[in-house]
Amino acid sequence: MKILEDISLAIQKGKARDVKQLVMEALEMGITAQEILDKGLLDGMGKLGVRFKNNEVYVPEVLIAARALNNGTEILRERLVEEGVKPIGKVVIATVKGDLHDIGKNLVKMMLEGAGFEVVDLGTDVSEDEIIKAVQQENPQILALSALLTTTMTNQKVVIDALKEANLREKVKVMVGGAPVTQAFADEIGADGYAEDAATAAEVARSLI
Ligand code: B1M
Question: Which residues make Cβ contacts (< 8 Å) with residue 12, sequence separation at least 6?
Fold first, then answer.
């Protein structure tokens, strides 16, 4: 569909305003939020990701595209929340220490909110100490940890170990995810749940409570 291709292109060019406008138009045309996300926003970031890997574009271009993508998902999030229901549980979510990637985390947050969870977002590059403090203060049923780098995924284990140390491990279910994370890794570090993508993350979260 032309408008979805336009959204994908606007992401690749980092045109935040165009993305916002096009996403609103696509919603008005009756295209589902899921389709806009998959075939427009994520298609664009996926294509840019390939060029990033091949050194055809660099960090600044990707950052600008990421901002444009967050602009688009914010509109979708509002739509999902508008259709939302009463909270069915509370989730604390964070990208682990040393990791600045937040697009995937934001999508997981959006899907969790759409599924009826109240979500407390700690942001990116969050240390185990900050996470422990948030678990103590917020008392969530689920702690959701995202990591995008092979060098930071091990910090998901650091958080699980810190929860044990603080006698909180039995009080909260831990879900992990992010591109380099696998079910085998989740099992190895003692997480309660793993999801490959944001939609599955919402299903897994429901199954955990
Ligand atoms: Co970075 N980066 N990056 N980057 N970046 C990757 C991840 C990389 C694969 C690119 C590459 O080389 N091919 C590579 C990692 C290599 C590795 O470790 N194996 C990489 C690198 C190396 C780096 C830097 C080190 C580059 C540098 O500085 N030289 C640097 C690190 C900075 C840091 O974090 N300390 C860096 C920086 C950046 C930017 C800041 C420029 C930017 C991030 C901006 C932002 O997030 N606000 C960026 C981006 C955008 C990418 C790519 C292009 C796209 C990532 C993304 O957002 N994908 C990425 C290449 C790629 O993936 N093609 C790359 C879309 C997003 C929807 O997918 O995050 O996987 P994803 O989330 C999915 C699932 O993983 C899952 O659901 C989501 C939706 O379906 N999921 C969960 C995620 N979290 C979950 C949690 C769950 C469950 C599911 O439960 C809790």
Answer: 44, 47, 48, 65
